[in-house]
Amino acid sequence: MLIRRVQVQGLRRLVNVDLQPGPGFNLLIGDNGSGKTSLLEAMHLMAHGRSFRGRIRDGLVRSGEPALQVFLEWEQPGQPSRRGGLRHSGSAWEARLDGNHVGQLGELCEALAVITFEPGSHALIHGSSEVRRRYLDWGLFHVERSDAGGDFLSLWRRHARAHKQRNALLRQGRADGQLDAWEHELALAGESITLQREAYVARLQAHVDTLLAEILPAAGAATLSLQPGWRRQELGLADALLLARERDLAQGHTTVGPHRADLKLEFRDLPGRDGLSRGQAKLAALVLLLAQASHLATHAGHWPVLQLDDLASELDRHHQRRVLQVLVESRAQVFMTGTESIPALASLADRHTTFHVEHGEIRAVV
Description:
With 366 residues, the protein is of the alpha/beta class. The chain has a domain at 1-113 and 305-366: 3-Layer(aba) Sandwich (Rossmann fold). The protein has helices at residues 36-48, 105-111, 123-126, 129-143, 152-171, 177-215, 237-243, 245-251, 278-300, 311-314, 317-330, 343-348; strands at 2-9, 16-19, 25-29, 68-75, 82-88, 93-97, 100-101, 114-117, 222-227, 262-267, 305-308, 334-338, 352-358, 361-364. The chain has a 6-stranded antiparallel β-sheet with strand order 2-1-4-5-6-7, covered by helices on one side. Strands 8-11-12-3-13-14 form a 6-stranded mixed β-sheet, sandwiched between helices. The chain has a two-stranded antiparallel ribbon with strand order 9-10. The radius of gyration is 22 Å and the shape is globular. The two termini are 25 Å apart.
């Protein structure tokens, strides 16, 4: 997947950006606070429907501007060029894809695949289970279908609706036929989602094995597994919901199910997740993100767009070189930020484009 044009207005420090990136490495150089990360944030926003730096209303819209606007043109092998745009005022959003209005942001997220490694990515290891569920589900949005059957986005929406309705009934204290009906729907969608998540985790394992050996060999080996959110080896989700009903009525929300699932990552030669250093956690998170990208490449036939924010400050030079070697071999389009050029990039990559970022403006360095 190649992004051919990026236009951004009103996003944090960015004034009026119109960029034509190259197909290989795109290096964004500038001082801290110049707007480098904001460009990555714009592309991430289009692909994920959310920022990786917090909520939309937390300073994302440039002061004095009525809204932020992002427009991208991209292409992928064997398909016509595509274009999409997103406008967000801080309270409401509008989106278009190939000239048509988008009613659900999920449609935009499925069309454009961008994976970002940034200073907060260690939360994929040290953060809450919600971060890891989002990681799994974003990957499944792009796989679309699995051997478990069913479109994942549709299943996810069915589950979210049933979960919301059951919680509303629980808060009202209603243990009646409506609760039975929504529990049935929740169980059907939830079991299917869990099957797809399990299959996805199993397929990720081989990609994690390969990348771990290249990026974090000190870990020895790793095992990925899904914790489904209830005692699935003992009972189905319908029975789990029924058994938890009295407790859920007392608490006013659903305490078992896929919304409580988690991704478990265990290393043979490193301590458990809570015992990893911040540096080890960042490398482990990078392995997971690149494994997701590699799996998507196997499924779609091409790599997604990759973004690495401030790689030089996040990883030492030894690990930088390891990571860059993986990226060169992938032939993916890569966006990287830094306060200065990365020496290893010049020696490894024969094609890269450099952009200078200053005071929210971006220009190509000839």
